[in-house]
C-alpha cells in the first residue's frame, strides 16, 4: 500500500476537492471525497496514524495552484500529494472566454509536480479531470478537456505517480445510472459521485 505510518496526505485541487471545507480550520476536510477517504483509511488502519489535509479551493485552475503552491503544499510537507486539477482550465474557456491551451496546462502542471518532487520526499497521486454530458452542451467540452486528460496520464508516467482514471470511471458508471445521478451539472459530483471518487482513490493506493 502507498500509505505508510504517520504519513501526511494532502488533497489539492478545485471545488470537487474543496467541497464544503472550512478554510479557517486547517484540519477541515470538507464533506466530499476527501472526508470519505480519511474516514475509511482511519477506521481500516488506525494504527498507521495518518493525517489528512485538504487545500482544494473552488474555481481554481493550474495557474491558481502555482500561485499558492509554497504555502498550500510545500510548507505543509506532505508525504503523499493527491492532485485533481484541470476542469476549470477547460470550463473558463466556455463560460468566460479564458482559454488555457493544452501546452500551457502541461507546463503549469509539470511545474507543480517538479516543485513538489524537488522540495519534498513525496509520493504522487494524480486524479484525472472529468466531465459528463449534463447538460448536453458539456459534450462540446471534450475537444478541450480530452487533451488535458492525456497530459495528466503522460505526466503521471513521467513522474511515477499513481493515476486515478476518473474520466473513464465516471463514463463507466454512467452505463449503470443516468449521468446526472453521478454529477448533476456534469462536473460537481453527487454524494454517489464523491463515493465513486473515494473508492477509486482507495483502490489506486492499495488501501482496499
Automatic annotation (TrEMBL):
<feature type="domain" description="SGNH hydrolase-type esterase">
    <location>
        <begin position="13"/>
        <end position="195"/>
    </location>
</feature>
<dbReference type="InterPro" id="IPR013830">
    <property type="entry name" value="SGNH_hydro"/>
</dbReference>
<dbReference type="InterPro" id="IPR051532">
    <property type="entry name" value="Ester_Hydrolysis_Enzymes"/>
</dbReference>
<protein>
    <submittedName>
        <fullName>Lysophospholipase L1-like esterase</fullName>
    </submittedName>
</protein>
<dbReference type="InterPro" id="IPR036514">
    <property type="entry name" value="SGNH_hydro_sf"/>
</dbReference>
<dbReference type="GO" id="GO:0004622">
    <property type="term" value="F:phosphatidylcholine lysophospholipase activity"/>
</dbReference>
<dbReference type="Pfam" id="PF13472">
    <property type="entry name" value="Lipase_GDSL_2"/>
</dbReference>
